[in-house]
Amino acid sequence: LPKDNYISQLIYNGNEKLRSKMALDDISLSFLPKHIYLIQVESLTTVALKNMPFFKQMIEVNSSKYFVDKNHEHCIGSGNTDFMMMSGFSFDCEKAHTLVYYAYPSEIYQKVKPLSAVLKDKGYQTIFVHGYKGDFFNRNKHYPKMMFDKIYFQENFSKHIPKGEWGIGDYSLLKTISSLKETEKTFYFIITSGMHPPYEIPEENNTQQSLLRDDVNAYLKAVSFLDNGLNELYISAPEDSLFIIYGDHNVPDIKAFDTPVLLFYKGNQNLIIKGDKTEGFNGTPYYINSLFDER
């Protein structure tokens, strides 16, 4: 790998700056749940919460953790966001002038151990699901190298599932995942794509809500389908399930600059999510990875 650019330096040197700010012992789960759902939501912002009753309900759960990341900008592409989450690395978006999945070969995972590999070592079946095309951001070349047992892109789902310009609708995607009914220890990494403008609703025969990127009402209608899908997934999920939901970037067109990060648990046990996150989005991937760190 080239060692002369910003991202390469992170890969070679790790998160030493963040590690100096947060001790691993300060971030932990009281036990590892049997099922883990890590969900990266396209364009999820705090503005969306106006039309997300299920999400807001989960914020109030006693064992939940809720953060708001201020001014979480689009870091070259959402592919960089999910690479950060898988690797635990934290980019300064002003310095990250490249998209990792294009700039680096998939052999990068000989140097970077993704969260999926960490959890596979702990006995989890690992499943990756994305509602859009596999070649978008080169994900179909990278995710097979991340130790996922099963990988689903738009083209791997039934042709009868409602699709729009940006792939499978969020409600349909989450409802389909809820039907998988995995019984063994399972880690799901899910990336939605339905919240892109023009905010289509494939479940309503590809209704094009708006050609305007700044149409808040179209955005809020689309997000209601996402919220219903999250509710369906939660209801169908087995007991002893941890949900981690976060937005991939802000949406300046609708003046939505902050993205939510929410962790909550479904089960009869008392799961304690310990620790606080550093300021800004750059601390979130490190925080999530540290919850499952090999200690």
Topology:
Blueprint: H1 6-13, H2 16-21, E1 28-29, E2 35-41, H3 53-59, E3 65-69, H4 78-87, H5 100-103, H6 115-121, E4 125-130, H7 139-142, E5 150-152, E6 163-164, E7 167-168, H8 170-178, E8 186-191, H9 216-236, E9 241-247, E10 259-266, E11 273-274, H10 284-291
Parallel strand pairs: 2-8, 2-9, 4-5, 4-8
Antiparallel strand pairs: 1-11, 3-10, 6-7, 9-10
Helix pairs in contact: 4-10, 8-9
Provide an overview of this structure.
This protein has 295 residues and is of the alpha/beta class. It has helices at residues 6-13, 16-21, 53-59, 78-87, 100-103, 115-121, 139-142, 170-178, 216-236, 284-291, and strands at residues 28-29, 35-41, 65-69, 125-130, 150-152, 163-164, 167-168, 186-191, 241-247, 259-266, 273-274. Strand 6 and strand 7 (167-168) form a beta hairpin. Helix 8 runs parallel beside helix 9 (216-236). The chain is globular. 46% of the residues are buried.
Can you tag this structure with a few keywords?
two-stranded antiparallel ribbon; single chain; globular; 7-stranded mixed β-sheet; 295 residues; alpha/beta
Task: Provide a compact summary of the structure.
This protein has 295 residues and is of the alpha/beta class.
